Amino acid sequence: MESDPIYLFRLLQLASPALPVGGFSYSEGMEAAVAHQLVHDEASAQAWLIDHLHLVLSRGDLPVLAQAIPAWQQHDVAQLKQLNDWVMQTRETFEMRLQTEQMGRSLLVWLRNQTDADSARMQSCENLPPTWPLAFALALSTHGVPMREGVWTASFGWAENMVQAAIKAVPLGQLSGQRILAALTTDIPEAVDHAMKLASHERQAFSPRLAILSARHETQYSRLFRS
User: Looking at domain 31-217, what is its CATH homologous superfamily?
Assistant: First the structure.
């Protein structure tokens, strides 16, 4: 399967910032971190994103994604609902919840327009409706992507979007952005390995500074991003 160019193109398509889900409109707290001078140059932007990868994604959304892929494959509706509820319950601010709901809905619209959309699984979506990690897991499951490659794909797509957010918000040059992206891709395999080892009871969502910044961002005077 890995040598099939169509398989590779599907992964690239799902990881691309051009995927029409609106990821470009969110900075996931970085814009607020810039406003409070916690992020102010290339080094601080890189440190912020690497911390976000290891302390937020690899402990929460990536484990959900990894656990949702087999749940979609087995059509385990109870497990999918449990995972989806966990994501919603751990979104500490309005804009965090808005992001995961909006991007999940947008990805479902994209999936419904694919020739290989699974009608039974799409029907299950109407009852959730799935948050972003659940919707992305459905896309990976629909295309038969193995779990590890799928979580890599989601991680790289997040990294590209966040680097573009840093370029605009700090602001930074394109070469700085590429150096940050290279650093993130070096750390992604470790973050994914950690995420895939976590059991359901080991997932966590504890990032108080990020939650505070997100809450402040909701009333920030001047904003480029929705989070």
Answer: Urease accessory protein UreF (1.10.4190.10)
